[in-house]
Design brief:
Structural class: alpha/beta
Number of strands: 10
Strand order of the largest sheet: 2-1-5-10-9-6-7-8
Strand content: 15-25%
Helix content: 25-40%
Number of helices: 9
Radius of gyration: 17 Å
Oligomer: single chain
Largest sheet: 8 strands, parallel
Order of helices and strands: EHEHHEEHEHEHEEHEHEH
Length: 306
C-alpha cells in the first residue's frame, strides 16, 4: 500500500462564496464524510500559510495584497462568479499552502502521494485576476515551488470539465512544465482549443483535448489510456500534479459530460500507472455533493492501491 497524505483544514469551510453558490463549504463536508472509512489509512497533514513570495512565483507582486484588502474590507464579487468574504484570503493562502506542504512531505519521504482537499479551487486564476471561483492558482504555484525544490520537470494533468486557462497561461512559453487538459468545449472559460499548443520554447508542451457535451467513459478512457501515456513517456517528468475537478461526472449540475463514478476511477487509475513518480492531486471543481464525495473516495482508494 502506498503512503498517501491527505491535506485538509477547517479554514477552507470559512471561505464564503455567498448563498446558493455551487462552490460551497458542503463540498468538503461531504468529501470528509465519504472518506471516514479510509481515514486510518491516510497520513493526515495540515496545510501551512503560503507566503506572499511563494504566491508571487505565479502571481503579480501586488495581487495578494489586493485580495487581502478586498477581503478584509468585507469581500464581495471579484468577478461575476467569484465571491469572497472576510475569511477568504486566509482560506486561499492555506489552499496554496496545501500544495507546498505536499511537496515538502514528499521530499521528507513521509508520503509518496498526496490529495489536497482545498477550497477555493485554483486553475482559472490568472496572474493578476480571480475568475471562475478561483483566487490563487494552487496547482501552478505548487509546480513552481516543486521546481524550486529540485523537481526539474513537472507534468500537470487537468481533468476538470472546465479548461484551466490560468494554468495554461502560466506555462505557455515554458518547456519545463507540460500542461495536459481534457475538458468540455466550447464551454466556460472559452479557452482550450486543440490548436493552443504553447509558444516559443513552450510550443508542444501544452496539449488540449477539447470534448463535446455528452462525452462519456469510452472516449475518456481512450484518451487517458492511449493518448496521454506517450506524452508522459517522452516528457519524462520528475513529478505529476493533477488538477482533480470532478465536474466531469454525469450528475454534475454545471456541466454536460457523461462520465460515471466508475469511469472517474479508471481515469485516476490510468494516471497513477503513467510513471513511478510522486503525485499530488489538487481539488478543483465538482458540484454534485454525493458524486463528489464518492469520486474523491474512489480516487484515494486508487492512490493507496495502484
Amino acid at each position: 500500500m502506498k503512503k498517501v497524505g491527505y491535506i485538509y483544514d477547517d479554514i477552507y469551510l470559512k471561505h464564503d462564496t455567498g448563498i446558493g453558490h455551487p462552490e460551497s463549504p458542503q463540498r468538503l463536508v461531504y468529501i470528509n464524510r465519504y472518506l471516514e472509512p479510509l481515514k486510518d489509512k491516510l497520513v493526515h497533514i495540515s496545510p501551512r500559510r503560503a507566503t506572499v513570495k511563494e504566491i508571487t512565483l505565479i502571481h503579480d507582486t501586488y495581487y495578494p495584497q489586493e485580495i487581502m484588502d478586498f477581503c478584509s474590507a468585507g469581500g464581495g464579487y471579484l468577478d461575476p462568479d467569484t465571491h469572497v468574504g472576510i475569511h477568504s484570503y486566509d482560506a486561499a493562502v492555506m489552499a496554496v499552502g496545501a500544495g507546498l506542504q505536499a511537496v515538502d512531505k514528499i521530499l521528507s519521504n513521509e508520503v509518496e502521494r498526496v490529495f489536497c482537499a482545498v477550497r477555493p479551487p485554483g486553475h482559472h486564476a490568472e496572474k493578476d485576476k480571480a475568475m471562475g471561483f478561483c483566487i490563487f492558482n494552487n496547482i501552478a504555484i505548487t509546480a513552481r515551488y516543486a521546481q524550486s525544490k529540485g523537481f526539474k520537470k513537472v507534468f500537470i494533468i487537468d481533468f476538470d470539465a472546465h479548461h484551466g486557462n490560468g494554468t495554461q497561461k502560466a506555462f505557455y512559453d515554458d518547456d519545463t512544465v507540460f500542461y495536459f487538459s481534457t475538458h468540455e468545449y466550447p464551454f466556460y472559460p472559452g479557452t482550450g482549443s486543440k490548436d493552443e499548443k504553447g509558444v516559443g520554447k513552450g510550443y508542444g508542451y501544452t496539449y488540449n483535448v477539447p470534448l463535446p457535451a455528452g462525452t462519456g467513459d469510452d472516449v475518456y478512457l481512450q484518451i487517458y489510456q492511449e493518448e496521454l501515456p506517450p506524452l508522459v513517456k517522452s516528457f519524462d517528468p520528475d513529478i505529476i500534479l493533477v488538477s482533480a475537478g470532478y465536474d466531469l461526472h454525469e450528475d454534475d449540475p454545471l456541466t454536460y459530460l457523461e462520465v460515471s463514478t466508475e469511469g472517474i476511477g479508471k481515469i485516476v487509475e490510468s494516471i497513477l500507472q503513467l510513471k513511478d513518480v510522486p503525485y499530488i492531486f489538487m481539488l478543483e471543481g465538482g458540484y454534485n455533493l454525493d458524486a463528489l464525495g464518492e469520486s474523491v473516495k474512489l480516487t484515494i482508494e486508487k492512490m493507496l492501491e495502484v
